[in-house]
Amino acid sequence: MARARGALDREAPLRPATARAHGGTLQIVIVGAGTVGFDLAIQLQQAGHDIGLVEVDEERCAEISAKLDILVVHGPGGSPGVLERAGIAEARILLAVTSVDEVNILACGLAAQYGVPTRIARIRNRELIRDPEHIDLAPLGVTRAINPEGIVVRVIDQIARIPDVVEVFGYHEGEILIARHVLTAGMPIVGRSLVEILGAAGSGRLLSVLLRRGAEVRIPVGSDVLAPGDDVTTLFPRGSLPKYLDLLGLSGRAARKAVIAGDGLTAIQLGEVLSRWIPDVTLVSRDAAHAERAAAQLGRVEVLYGEPTDRDVLHDVNVAGADLFVGAGRDTPQNVMSALLARAEGAGRVLAVSFEPQNNRLFRNIGVDHVISPRRAVNQEIIDIILRGRGALELHLRDMDFQAVQLQAEPGSPITRAPLIETWKDLKGQAIVGAVVHQGRMLVPGGDTRIEAGDDAIVIASPRAARRIQKLFGSR
């Protein structure tokens, strides 16, 4: 067991006072210190929580102890003694995120016997989660199962469903979306003010929260008239996606053909999901056994065995006619190279799954439209679930000095004492409340909206507004 000095430095300008629950800091035990567990430990520690991290690899324990000021315990996650040394008896949350499903389930089962209320297991075997009516993990101690491949597939599906999107984020497990588009001449919203657009949306519940015009990035006002070249960020519930696309003139541009290149579980799950709404889906796998499994599982998907970086193979699948290409294999260079070759051959949008987050900006700069980081997607999903509304999930908007963050109004907090027109007046131009979730329902707020204790809010903010926002949502 080791406790280290000095946490890793990470830029996190908006760290809300609402990082506490039930009046105190959360005690969280994480089992597994791979990339997912390590990143979660960093984020949760920075959010103000006490972390106990369990790892079976002794060298990995020493490495983490030298970097993070958290409790690191060496030993198997299925050992009651090891879990006790990590603080399981006082824990409110257990995150079992090792690479072995059985270890994760066992850790959750043990945590249940210690009275830990929230027990989340990383589960890769879809047989265990596909049919909850017949296979229920709750009696084994799991309160929530997280499937990494399924999360990545959902992120890709969100991007695929929104033509020409620059960036898209999902909150509340994809129920609330934040999407960015660069406007072009001829779009129905060009030449109209935001007030007009909001009226045209009707019950669509859309709110434009950021506007980039040239070098200037700011929170727009209702009188702003949109022009070609504007980069607009809009927040809306998933159910309003058709209305959003209609306002942009993109309703008739749904993908008709998609090509997936991949040799793992993600590629198969992606083929299953995309084939539900894209009529022509092809999967290319460089692994013969994987291709055989995929063909057996995917009735609506054409499956080919071949090298996705081979131009002849790309010609065979008519990649030039594809609206969408996704490099979704287990090897980052392969995914990026196949996406770039697909682009060179005439494919529409090209996406690549990357296990090298430090290189994602480079991959975008050389021509990949969207780079998906499984590590980031899985961590955001877990943080969203366990700390929803406590301000720990932050999304930094690319190339903008703004971020989106979830907050929960604490009882007695200043934000609950008056309508937004009064509580928010000193933050105009620096931050905007994009959505309020009240009793499970998303509301697009106006000046007369009054946030109640327990309501979740999604706030788009500049770093300089951080301290004042903390005070507004915190009880002290």
Description of the molecule:
With 476 residues, the chain is of the alpha/beta class. Helices cover 29% and strands 24% of the residues. The strands form four sheets. A seven-stranded mixed sheet has the order 1-4-3-2-5-6-7, sandwiched between helices. Strands 15-14-13-16-17-18 form a six-stranded parallel sheet, sandwiched between helices. It has a five-stranded antiparallel sheet with strand order 8-9-12-10-11, with helices on one face. It folds into four domains: 145 residues, Rossmann fold; 85 residues, Regulator of K+ conductance, C-terminal domain (Alpha-Beta Plaits, 2-Layer Sandwich); 122 residues, Rossmann fold, CATH 3.40.50; 87 residues, Alpha-Beta Plaits (2-Layer Sandwich), CATH 3.30.70.
Offer a concise description of the structure.
By secondary structure, this protein is α/β, with parallel strands linked by helices.
Adjacency order of strands in the biggest sheet:
1-4-3-2-5-6-7
The low-pLDDT segments are 1-24
CATH class of the largest domain: Alpha Beta
Number of strands: 23
What overall form do the CA principal axes indicate?
A: globular
CATH topology (fold) name of the largest domain: Rossmann fold
Would you tell me the structural class of the helices and strands? alpha/beta
Number of helices: 15
Give a short account of the largest sheet: 7 strands, mixed
Give Rg in angstroms. 23 Å
Number of domains: 4
CATH homology superfamily name of the largest domain: NAD(P)-binding Rossmann-like Domain
CATH architecture of the largest domain: 3-Layer(aba) Sandwich
The portion of residues assigned to helices is 25-40%
Beta-strand residue percentage: 15-25%
